[in-house]
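Much of what follows relies on a compact textual record of a protein's fold. A record is reproduced here so that you can trace the correspondence yourselves:

. . .
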Amino acid sequence: MKLLLLFLSFASLSLLSFSQDQEETNEDFLRFGGALRLNIVSQHYESDPKPTSTYATLDTWRLNVAASYSGVTLDFEYRFYPTFNTHFIHHGYLGYSFSDNLNMQLGVTRVPFGNLDYNSNSWWFLIPYYVGLEDDYNMGIKFNYDFTENLNIAVAYFRQSDPAGPAYGSASFGGPGAGTYSYNIVPDEAGSLSETGATASIREMNQFNVRTVYNIFENIEVGVSAQLKGIYNSVLNDIEYGNAWAVHSQSNFGNANIKLQYTNYHYKARDDEGNLLNRVQMGAYGDPYYGDGVAARASIITAGLAYNIPVNWGPISSVLPYFDYSLMIKDGDILVDNNPVTFESSIMIVPGFMLTAGRVFTYVDFALGKNHPWLTDYFGTGLGAGHLDNQGNPIPVDDIDWNLRFNINIGYYF
């Protein structure tokens, strides 16, 4: 209720800030753009490398539209992923600035949570992205307000997750929310995550966000983010509310940038029999995490260091070496022979660098992971209980070998 009252207060403030005699400062425009990205991949996971372990793909192509008429703006992006045989909206919203300090976005817009624009430097992002807490987009309304030159607050209400496109050629496979850019909670139709084997007809509905950041100095920003997430079960016809919060900072020292964040979340959801789940199913790009899901409760520590080096190497104008780290500590257990066994942690490390050459941006990443659902031969396994041995016990994370993917992503943005 407090978050709802704060949201309504901002809506009222927006009306008070509007003035009919406000001079128009933005010229009308209509712009089109897009991007084409290619991936060169060499992966070394649990199995021995094969000739097919090194390959190239057409990663993404996208279309962008931006417009402004009579002070109302439009920002829209639609993406196509040939590798996953799917396509979907990335974002699309109407915007309006009531004053120099207050603006609104209505539609599919970025969730104000954690370090923005990103909590990472690499093409891969970090673990928060894979549990829906980094670069997340949902459908709703958001207000940004600059109280002072150093203090900003954003409040938002999201009715539902971002719209889903086809999932591997099927509009229904994976349930609502699976064929999206952002990771969302989706139904567990197999009942693999419930201790009783019950299915879970769940999806995201009703989410409130508040994010506050303050610039201590011109080069140091600190912030706090909070999220109240509703998870609706259509069989029980009930919404269970969970939460997430984060403390975060970004600092710039000359050409160096440091990102730090601590995140804690609890996704409260029940299966169709009313049992509280300690793992939830999540999905994106048309594919849910089969079998293992995501721990319903966890803490995530992330850190990123980057240093920009200006160069003059033909078309290359800068090199940005970086090192990204994330650790996910889970709060949950799995029953093995009727005995609870604690979930194992997940780790992701990405050293790499980015090359800038005009409108071409190239990420060269060495992504390493333990219990990471994308860095494994067993896609979707890792963020829940973790990898299991032959007896069904989670393998201690210290006993798991690092999985490696060397990835070059070349993108032309226009």
